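Example S7 (structure tokens).
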């Protein structure tokens, strides 16, 4: 009985030596490649994100350890976004993909499933938010995806990003945890600053009229009623009847201002403004709000905190 075991052991050892030799060879090849072409080598984790709100979040938590490719820049509407061939490549080459989920990226669901099956970590930043904290929007039980306009829900999104990074790169866990705590502190200050500013708007004037329903969480947190021409997704045409009905309500209630969104054509809000004025109520466009995308990178509004502050200041100025 011993002899066959010994032969078996020798065979296994021989195979293992063979495999290690192949690994050493491959490693050496990789190193030679890196020296010859330093650009091909990066220790950073390659991350692909969808909206620039998520890009900003991942960059804050990942810091120097990540290289983030965001598919959607400023002014891009995620509800209607269809990925290009180069987007699909970027998704396939990513170490981790972070997306919003809750059907925000309505045309991309199949790609996330496919790439997830191929072994890449594909994480929805909304995945840990308990259903009782989400707003239900319609009879089909769809949840509102615009979670980033509630700072507390965005805190949960930040934790998902930190956990995803720690699992992928445990050696830098402490660093991700430190970045997370620093960022959560900043979010906390943002929320208290927002609350202080909003207090200057009398509660009966807290009505936000926008093109699409992106601010339900915002309204829920800060006591605003939201009146939108379109529903929660931009994937439907706003009809003349909807605009007329809304114009009636706005003139009856003497609402002071309407708001344009950066990721949606201003045409529907301009049509609404004209319809309200036809009814004899003088209304203004109170400014432009960031809804489904934040601003240009490198500007104050190119961060989530900067864009949120811009929105609050614009709303307070128009409605107080
Ligand atoms: Zn939206």
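Recovered sequence:
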């Amino acid at each position: 009985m011993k002899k066959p075991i010994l032969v078996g052991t020798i065979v296994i050892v021989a195979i293992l030596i063979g495999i290690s030799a192949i690994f050493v060879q491959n490693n050496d090849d990789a190193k030679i490649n890196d020296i010859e072409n330093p650009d091909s080598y990066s220790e950073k984790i390659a991350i692909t994100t969808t909206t620039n709100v998520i890009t900003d979040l991942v960059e804050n938590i990942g810091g120097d350890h990540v290289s983030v490719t965001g598919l959607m820049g400023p002014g891009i509407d995620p509800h209607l976004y269809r990925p290009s061939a180069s987007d699909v490549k970027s998704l396939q080459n990513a170490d981790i993909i972070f997306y919003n989920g809750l059907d925000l990226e309505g045309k991309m669901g199949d790609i996330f499933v496919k790439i997830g099956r191929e072994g890449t970590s594909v994480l929805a930043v909304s995945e840990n938010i308990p259903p009782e904290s989400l707003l239900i929007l319609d009879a089909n039980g769809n949840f509102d995806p615009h979670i980033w306009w509630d700072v507390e829900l965005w805190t949960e999104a930040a934790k998902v990003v930190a956990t995803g990074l720690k699992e992928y790169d445990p050696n830098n866990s402490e660093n991700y945890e430190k970045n997370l705590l620093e960022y959560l502190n900043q979010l906390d200050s943002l929320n208290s600053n927002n609350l202080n500013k909003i207090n200057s708007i009398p509660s009966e004037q807290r009505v936000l009229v926008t093109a699409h329903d992106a601010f339900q969480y915002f309204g829920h947190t800060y006591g605003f009623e939201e009146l939108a021409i379109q529903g929660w997704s931009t994937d439907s045409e706003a009809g003349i009847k909807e605009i007329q009905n809304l114009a009636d309500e706005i003139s009856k209630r003497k609402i002071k201002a309407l708001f344009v969104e950066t990721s949606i054509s201003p045409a529907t809000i301009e049509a609404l403004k004209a319809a309200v004025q036809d009814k004899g109520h003088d209304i203004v466009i109170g400014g432009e709000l960031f809804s489904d995308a934040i601003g240009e990178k490198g500007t104050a509004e190119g961060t989530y905190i900067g864009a949120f502050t811009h929105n609050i200041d614009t709303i307070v100025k128009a409605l107080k």
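Notes on this example. The first strand starts at residue 45 and ends at 49.
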